[in-house]
Amino acid sequence: MKRALQRTATENADSTAPAKDRLVAWGMNLEELRELEAKAMQLEKLAKMLLNTPQQAFYLYDYRAQEFLFGQAHLSGLYGYKTGEIEKRKDGWLSIVHPDDLAEYLETRERMIRNPKDEVCVLRMRTLKKSGGWEWITSYRRVFERDEKGAAVSEIGMGMIITPLVEAETALKETEALCHSLFQFNTAGVLVFDRKFQITDANPAARRMLGYDAGELSRLGVLDLTAPGTRMEMHRLLRVMKSGDKKLPPSLDAFLEHKTGTKVAVMATPTCIHDEKGGFRHGMLILANITDRKLTEAALKRESELNRILIDNAPIAIGLLSPEGTVLRMNAVAEKLFGYTMKELKDREVWELPIMNAEEKHAAQQRFQSLLDGADKVTAAFPIRTRRGETRHIESTTMAVTKPDGSIDCLITTGTDMTERRQLEAEVIRVAEQEHIRIGHDLHDGIGQTLTGIASLVEALESKLQGEDKKDAKRIYELVKTATEETRRLSHGLSPAAVKNRGLAGGLLLIAETVRENFRRDCVCQIDDPAPRVDQEAEIHLFRIAQEAVNNAIRHGGATKLRISLRHKSSTRGLLEISDNGPGFPDGKISSTGDGIGLRVMEHRAHLINGELKIQTVRSKGVRVTCQFPLRSA
After folding, report:
1. Which of 241, 198, 190 is closest to 221 using CA atoms?
2. What is the pLDDT at residue 496?
3. Model confidence at 8: pLDDT above 50
4. Strands of 121-128's sheet, edge to edge?
5. Number of CB atoms found within 10 A of residue 206's CB
């Protein structure tokens, strides 16, 4: 019909008949023609607008002529093709329909053609782009014109690109599926509630956590589930959520009530769902069951409190140090011992504390470094100076507490005040020393003189006898003389007269001489010139240490060579060393039984003079005894 109108209009336009005759032939007057022309211009403008709309294309297709009456270029360009390129492809327009959509496309077209109502058929489908890939479109089609028999003559339609919409819908579906999975299969409980804080939904984890089914929970509110102890905090959180306050806390530790009445400790993380105006629509609480954590925290708290009580009431000084050596904490015993409060010493390096003398600072740093290098613990005995000006003697043990990765978390140091014990030990040793002196004097003045008298009588008797009797008397005289020499040696060993008369250096030389003459062993004594200076008490203790070490080497070690040395270690420290070539201790370990008493006495003597005794042994390579001691100031 439209083509017939177009042909008639063309013929009339080409006619040379007068305009008035043409109007009469058309049956129109001039006003009607102008009105028709204005409508045609409006339709033309509307058609141009529709044809030039991006992301969509309109067309009119003639079935009989198998051609587009209009819209071909726009529809082809929608997919990136030029006019006529699609028609040249095998199967034409059907070739750009996605194989999975082709059957539905053909079925829709067939249904459209057969439907006499000429209703619009809508189909989502994918079309092949010239550049590759598929473009989602929505196709709107209907029969535009039928002949007198009802057969379809043409169709009119529109293709609209909806790829972004489809992608958004796909993403939305994936998000909805993910949210559904997160809600249904989340190991944490999720409660959804409305503006009145009434529960509208709960995931399976929440139902298991609280012991209710979905129907039971829907009849309860959030506050109905909250235990009385934390109900006020929960109500405050819900009000903040509803008000839209930006100061919403990230979580709340609370107690909910199980259906059985037992309390369930949870960490509730709040989130809000808002309407289009930003108002509160729904609230959501994500619940993590922290009952086990709370029980663990309570147990740790109890243990921490017990440890605090034990530390604060322990009879020894206890301190906690950082990996850098700074004081973190100390107990009341330490405060009382040092005369300083924890506040005064906190965060100060232990070797810089006012209780440490200059020499001990360096030693403390070395002990600390040995712990950093992997030592399990270090022990030491050293003097400190309290705030009251007293000198106290401390025996300390420091251990490293490590993290799972092996790094040091902190250090625990314990200190025992050994001052009174040292004084008692000193008194015991002083009494023993006096007893040694008395016994030595008794041996020298009593038994020694008696034996000397007996020897003189036997010698006089020998001169009067003859034959076998004379030989027997001579034998008796030699035995008595030997006993006299042994008594004299014992009296000298028990009495420190050698030290008092000769000094420490002379006493050590006498020990070496005695070893060579009485025991026939090789013994070398080396002494610095000038010799290290100490007071008389220290001389006696060092002499006894050397004496005990030499006796052990000869009697128990079977040594054939010994070396005694006395030298300066530094400007303030001296060093006494006794070494031998004996077999050493079994397995290289120092015995803790038997002669261990003698070794402990040596250690006590070293402590009494603020010295440090070390005994080192290597199997089959002898024993080395060293004692570092402070020198007497000039």
Report:
1. 198
2. 61
3. no
4. 67-70, 56-62, 152-161, 134-146, 121-128
5. 27
Query: 313 versus 137: which is more confidently predicted?
Result: 137
DSSP for 3-51, written as a single string: HHHHHHHHHHHH--S-HHHHHHHHT--HHHHHHHHHHHHHHHHHHHHHH
Spatial neighbors of 348 by CB under 8 A, at least 6 apart, are 326, 327
As a CATH number, domain 314-417 is 3.30.450.20
Q: Is 605 exposed, middle or buried (0-12, 13-18, 19+ CB in 10 A)?
A: buried
Distance CA 13, CA 7 (A): 10
d(CA 481, CA 347): 71
Model confidence pLDDT, tens digit, residues 525-539? 999 999 999 988 888
Please state which of the ranges 50-59, 156-165, 236-245, 610-619 shows the lowest mean pLDDT: 50-59
- Choosing among 3.30.450.20, 3.40.30.10, 3.30.365.10, 3.90.1150.10, the CATH entry for 53-162 is 3.30.450.20
For the chain, how far is it from start to end, CA to CA, in angstroms? 136
Query: Which residue carries 């109905």 as its tokens?
Result: 224
Domain at 186-294, CATH homologous superfamily: PAS domain (3.30.450.20)
Which neighbouring-strand residues pair with 523?
A: 562
Instruction: Report residue 291 CA to chain centroid gap.
Output: 23
